[in-house]
Amino acid sequence: MKDKPITVEDYEKHGKEFFDKYFYVARELGEGAKAEDILKIMESLGALVIKKRYEEKGVGPFGFNKNNDGNTDTIESDEC
Length: 80
Prior knowledge:
The chain is mainly α. Helices cover about 55% and strands about 0% of the residues.
């Protein structure tokens, strides 16, 4: 499925969610907002949402081999 080309049907299926967010940001930025600016704000706002979700609910951890305390696992070896 990962290698399958994106189809028009995929756009139809997921487009409403994208455009709801896009037009929300466009309204907030006001008349004359450029598409590039809207997309940049959407990206930043998405990152903020993820951060706030993590802070509010302790979602995660994200990253490679996180312990419950948030530290990354390390492999200790006597061969160093």
